[in-house]
Amino acid sequence: MMRNLSGLLAPAAAVLLVAVVVAAVAGAWPPFVAVESGSMAPEVERGDLVVVTSTDRFPWGGIVGAAEAGAPTTFGRAGDVVVFDPPNDGTRPILHRIAFPVSAGEDWTDRADPALLDGDCATLATCPAPYDGYVTYGDANGGYDQSVGIAPVVREEWITAKALFAVPNLGWFRVGVDAAIARVGLLPTAVGFGGLAAATGGFGALLLGRVTGRRAVRDEREE
Q1: 47, 107, 189, 191 — which has fewest CB within 10 A?
Q2: Which residues form the Peptidase S26 domain (predicted)?
């Protein structure tokens, strides 16, 4: 019984081990972000899984905006893509690109791309900048987050991680887990998904064992 139990739990343990290793390398937890909108399309689509790192993790340290000289390329365009979570905003964390940093009191529209502005400094609630921070945007959106009302100027302490690369479609599992947690709670979700992973792994191991056994019997008969 103990041997069967360990075999069933092995897949779940393997998934946890991979997550811990990735987190140790990336310096962020969780080390994955499931994309739930198309605001970073076409390079990052809804349902993709994005691997992230700490913003100060070597060799990816620091935050560089798209308008800065020598900006790194992330998801096909210049500038870092970050995860930020404005407090008391009522929305889920946002995965968007850094446009440029701003200073408190600055009329940041003077150096903004006019195509991404929905008004001038006199009409925007986020201009002049109320504090030091960053202007951000989604690649597929038609304006800066601070221009169209998606987010205020992003304080550096709100930025929790920086994106490294995306894996297509693997984020649907994370989206499903989050939806289940929101609906039934953490413990029932953990038990349910853990049992599903264990059962799937056990079924796979059983199937593989049967296939291997049949091959062994066939080889013995042929000899």
Answers
A1: 191
A2: 14-98
